[in-house]
Amino acid sequence: MKQVNFRIIELPTHQVLLTKDFDDDEESKPLLTITFFLEGVKVNQKLGYDDEAKRDEMFDKVTDEQVQKTLDNALAMFNE
Fold first, then answer.
1. How many CB atoms lie within 10 A of CB 47?
2. Which structural domain range is residue 54 located in?
3. Distance between CA atoms of 38 and 48, rounded to whole angstroms?
4. Residue 3: in which H helix or E strand, if any?
5. What tens digit of pLDDT does each residue of 17-40 get?
6. Nearest to 6 by CA among 40, 56, 52
7. Considering the domain boundaries, does residue 1 fall inside one?
8. Rounded to whole angstroms, how far apart are CA atoms 45 and 79?
């Protein structure tokens, strides 16, 4: 079975990349990274989890609506 570590979410105005990742420190804490571009600026939001199973569960559960809210919040902060 193929392991899925990346997912692209197609929103009306943006593409958003979800990535299963690990932080760069010694603990290698599992992360879910949400990446998109706003007016040429790359935005990364990293969410940390206690274990890979929980991170992987959230990776599968993330919806377009949740990602759109994240994007809307970032746009509001960007335009302040």
1. 14
2. 6-78
3. 23
4. none
5. 999 999 887 678 999 999 999 888
6. 56
7. no
8. 18
List the structure tokens of 66.
């949740």
- Secondary structure (3-state) at 28: coil
Give the SS3 label for residue 70: helix
How many domains, the chain?
A: 1
Question: What pLDDT does 1 receive?
Answer: 86
Helix (H) or strand (E) run with residue 52 in it: helix 52-61
Query: For residue 11, what pLDDT is reported?
Result: 95
* Distant-in-sequence, close-in-space partners of 13: CB < 8 Å, separation ≥ 6: none
Q: Give per-residue pLDDT as tens, 34-72.
A: 999 988 899 999 999 999 999 999 999 999 999 999 999
